[in-house]
Amino acid sequence: DQQVKQNSPSLSVQEGRISILNCDYTNSMFDYFLWYKKYPAEGPTFLISISSIKDKNEDGRFTVFLNKSAKHLSLHIVPSQPGDSAVYFCAASPGGSNYKLTFGKGTLLTVNP
Amino acid sequence: NAGVMQNPRHLVRRRGQEARLRCSPMKGHSHVYWYRQLPEEGLKFMVYLQKENIIDESGMPKERFSAEFPKEGPSILRIQQVVRGDSAAYFCASSPPGRGSNQPQHFGDGTRLSIL
């Protein structure tokens, strides 16, 4: 039972363009959402988060959008850079136990020069 | 480097042996979490600890696995009598104290456990 789904295993984008990574969830108890970036042989690096009281959070080139009614969130990276090439994980946690992150399987982003 | 430190980075064990994975949280962090990642999968929550306390171990297998975070020293994830299915990457994360607020977890680079 996969509660956090990243349906695109991979995404290829041209440098300078926008990258949009998508994530769907099924558990209506989730109220805190995070995106992590992961390079091979390294641990996940925290990028950006959003709580369910908001529908958008922005940090530099990264913006996360949350659509609670659709149980969908997305990460926008603009402009994309070759150094952004990595696996991106969406994670979510429920209220009351917001430490218990549930991760998606990840999307491999490749930004071509 | 004040990041989450995990060691060893790679650990090879034969079936039936014990594996001990260590994690030192970031400075100022008192909450430690362990996750396991199987190939082609996302990370899966195992256990949440604070100093000398196991807060939530709902993701831990019922047998052979244990975790501790003593008053002094690193957190330890211990796997007894390892089997081939234990082969995975084990990640530790930490976060600062902050009850009632969402705190992102910061991860170490993991221990890759291989069972021969």
Largest sheet of chain A: 6 strands, mixed
Report low-confidence residues of chain A grouped into runs of 5 or more: none
| Overall shape of chain A | globular
Mean pLDDT of chain A: 94
Which runs of chain B of at least 5 residues are low in confidence (pLDDT < 50)?
none
Structural account:
The complex is a heterodimer of chains A (113) and B (116). By secondary structure, chain A is mainly beta. Helices cover 0% and strands 56% of the residues of chain A. Chain A has no helices and eleven strands. Chain A has strands at 4-5, 10-14, 19-25, 30-38, 45-51, 56-59, 62-67, 72-77, 86-94, 102-103, 107-112. In chain A, the strands form two sheets. In chain A, strands 2, 4, 5, 9, 10 and 11 form a six-stranded mixed beta sheet that branches. In chain A, strands 1-3-8-7-6 form a five-stranded antiparallel beta sheet, with no helix packed on it. Chain A is globular. The N and C termini of chain A lie far apart (38 Å). Chain B starts with a strand and ends with a strand. The mean pLDDT of chain B is 92. With 116 residues, chain B is mainly β. In chain B, the strands form two sheets. In chain B, strands 2, 4, 5, 6, 9, 10 and 11 form a seven-stranded mixed beta sheet that branches. In chain B, strands 1-3-8-7 form a four-stranded antiparallel beta sheet, with no helix packed on it. Chains A and B meet through strand 4, strand 5, strand 9 and strand 10 of A and strand 4, strand 5, strand 9 and strand 10 of B.
